[in-house]
Hints:
The protein has nine helices and 18 strands. It is α+β, with helices and mostly antiparallel strands. The protein folds into two domains: 4-175 and 291-371, Aminopeptidase (3-Layer(aba) Sandwich); 177-288, 2-Layer Sandwich (Alpha-Beta Plaits). α7 packs across α9.
Amino acid sequence: MVKEQRLIELLRKLIAIDSQNPPGNEVKIAALCKGYLENLGLRVKIIEFKKNRPNVVATLKGLPGRQSLLITPHLDTVPAGISWSLDPFAGVIKNGKLYGLGATDCKVNLACSMEVIRSIVEEKVALPYDLIFAATADEETGSDWGLIPLLNTKILKPDAAVVLDADDFKIVVTQKGLMHLKVSVKGTRAHGAYPWLGKNAIAMAVDILAELNRKKIGILRNKYLRQSTMNIGTIRGGDKVNVVADWCEFELDFRFLPGESETKIIAMLKRTIRRHCPKYAVTIDGIQKPYAISPSHPLVAGLASAMRNHGVKPVISGSEGATVITFFQHKNIPAVASGFGTEGCAHTADEYVRVSNLITGARLLEDFLKAYRFSK
């Protein structure tokens, strides 16, 4: 049985450990997790792909010869910044809210996972599958030292996964794809007093961006997501006010729906550029594919059932931003994201989680894990 006070104190201990990223150092919080799980009799591994960036991986063995289910929160937080009115590492409780850096993102989910594993061990419950727990490093800056290499090296190879990194009991079944790219526009340099002798790269870039802003990036619709979008993130160009700029660069952020193609977006972009500028280059800095899982999948149905049993209305939703669930599709591993943070609190000063979310989250997570069955 989940014990409320024990769970609250565990979350406060986790918050008291500084795991800000950047700079990025999860050694102390990983050590706490390792010791906690080893005391329960689990075999725990610390896996590093970079010095001081540990990942904690443990397995609670179920009935023999069965499949495996992964639950994975992360260890790191964003930097605290300078705007807190409370000590971000004190874990102060006021008016039903537990304050602290990472309280919502995502130490509430880390605490719930650890308490639930303890409860299952204490009750001597044999799950009908192996439960894998992975508390990962570096989620806040891309997962290059965490979940990505854990999957790529097959250290993690579960049959299904629940990413515990969401707010207010949402069940995330889909998310947009992400593409970041840089466009370099080439012009002809001239004296600023004689602009007709040159070709202004900044002016061409402005025309390109104006046309892009008038376009629809995609035509599909999705029940859980807004339509595809483009954001102009940066623009820079020229060397001096009295010189016709012969260069300009801008960066674009595209978010696109499942079923839409990044190759078509790139082709549309290049056609648009060519209408205004013959000399250019497009550099792709990163692509994440969109992701979708059926809302009828056992992961979704199981989480929704556990939530209803605890008086929580499940919210099936999509993510406009990039989450780590997309990394599982490359390995053909079904995954959803869920979690118990408080919406609107992640990455804010005076971040908090509602204590009721913490308690209810742990209880329903335990019920979900006990009841979950892989489809035959």
